[in-house]
Amino acid sequence: MGLLITCTLVTTLYATAMTIANVSLPQIQGALSAGPDQVAWVVTANLIATAVTIPLAGWMSNRFGRRRVMIFGVAGFAVSTLLCGLSSSLEALILWRVFQSAFCSPLAAVAQSVVIDEFPGEQRPRAVAIFMMGVGIAPTIAPLLGGYVCEILSWSWVFYIMLPIAILAFFGLFIFVRPDPPKKDRAELDWIGFLSLVAMISSIQLVLDRGEREEWLSSLQIVFACFCAVISGWIFITHSLTKERPLIDLRLFTERNFVLGILIHAIFGMLFITPMVLMPSLLQQLQDVPEFEAGSLIAIRGAATTISMLLMVWGASKWDPRLLLLFGFGTHTYAGLTMAGFDMNTSFLEVSWVMFAQGFGVGCLWVPMTLVTFSNLALDRSAEGAMMWNLVRSIASSFYISLSFIVIFHTQKMSYRELAQWIIPFDDRFEFGVLQSFWNSNEFSNLLQLSSEVTRQAANIGYINVFHLFLWASILAYPLILLISWPPKGSTRR
Does residue 9 sit within a domain? Predict the structure, then answer.
């Protein structure tokens, strides 16, 4: 049990680091004098660094041993987290966020492979359910805790509160995790594969993050980034298919359930982080909700995830994972349908219920996704499989969040233009009722208020469009679930 708790704490660091800063972005923006697109890099830089360093998990485990990798990663995470809190500029904060992710991103894959190897057979579903609580619950509780300390103290404490968990995990690794047996065959890092993958992911992320601001292909920077993405992607794929021991062995994708599990997990990655990033922003921007109240809504989602994951501890080995997947994505589809109908007057209770439903579905998905993905994978490939599993989710989350912000900003600008064309002094609606007294077009202050209201309405339309995108993304999982082969090979179930 000590091993399982330690691995869960290690994974909690990785999961918490991704989301705890989300509710503090408005305060960070004000404290460090940054624009909305600039402060978004506090989140996206974290995701980029996560995506490009996760592929190193398999090589580092083979080269240095899983225990050493986790000890070094936790120590580096603690130091960089402390420096995040001490940052006095946005550039410094983004830099240390990159280091924070670089140290902690391999931890989840390495810890997951330890749990899969140490708990085989009938023990695995329960062990995985407990382990995944660190991945599923921590990111949903973190915004509540982050919102509270941000409101009471300052945004720096959002990072400081992660240090005690890092210290506990650090000592737990020495006590409960066994040193890896010495290996004669220590693979060298595939530098061509690694650098080409980093270049491809970074270029795509740059296009998504800067494209709207730079007007896409009209910018030489965006054109060059697209060119780099295509060339580096071609180099990575051809190199991985021809090298004997590549960074990512694409032959893993010859196993049916592994491929389906990875694709389903990618869709889940798109849906998992998005509400935790967008919902605080929506509430704070459109309804002036305080940080703690926004965090409490996210915590409701975390409570639902906790309940469903506790159910998974009890019943994951008894239920068909395909049914659990259908139910879990069904709650996301329901949440997407409901969120698409949100408006400026949506109540706290309505938002709470949607977050609860979506959170409950999250808890129902972690275990069956893990069981399906690794059901027919050899144990000696579990580290590679776990690395790929976490890599795909991180990339999908990063790209999808950037795409969501593109939809918000682009449709907000379009909607503002469409709404503003009806705001003219000669409109008869300004002559009646409350409009005449509140939005007098002859006074500059009232025109500013009117412009602010049009901006809020346009932003609301942008968020509604993102929620429609969320809905359609959830539907993509259903045909993949129907293709899963279950029971797995070698199973004695009937």
Answer: yes
